[in-house]
Amino acid sequence: MHLNHIEISGFKSFPERAELAFDAGVTAIVGPNGCGKSNVIDAITWVLGEQSARSLRGERMEDVIFGGSDARRPTATAEVRLQLSQVTAALAMLSGDGNGTAVVLAAPGVSNAGNGHEPKVEVTRADVSDNDNEFGNGPSIVRDVEVGRRLF
Predict the structure, then answer these.
(1) In this protein, which residues make up the domain named RecF/RecN/SMC N-terminal (predicted)?
(2) CATH for 2-90+117-145?
(3) Whole-prediction pTM value?
């Protein structure tokens, strides 16, 4: 499985949309202290389904939503979107041996049969605060993809 691209918006220290591309090979996230390097990893962990605020270095799940600063107002939503490729091969390793459960995702209306390319999968998760300052923390929102089948 290969992480191609991540978009982060309103998540922790990213009040505006930030996009990172991960080319083939080794990618390093570098920068000075406090610039958000760990928050990129937290965003990946969160979009893949992490439900523990403590695992995401927070006290409550609403801490994932940008809380504002001296220069910026808080945001109402946090959204993280991943684009993954080479998913089929990774899921094939999980299935068949009885040690894991895999979910095959396919883009609706896109057929990759016979073209020699693996499908690209986009996974999105968003938390939204409502007017009563309550925060949603449901399961991951999977948008623009559909669950094809489960392999056991």
Answers:
(1) 3-88
(2) 3.40.50.300
(3) 0.66
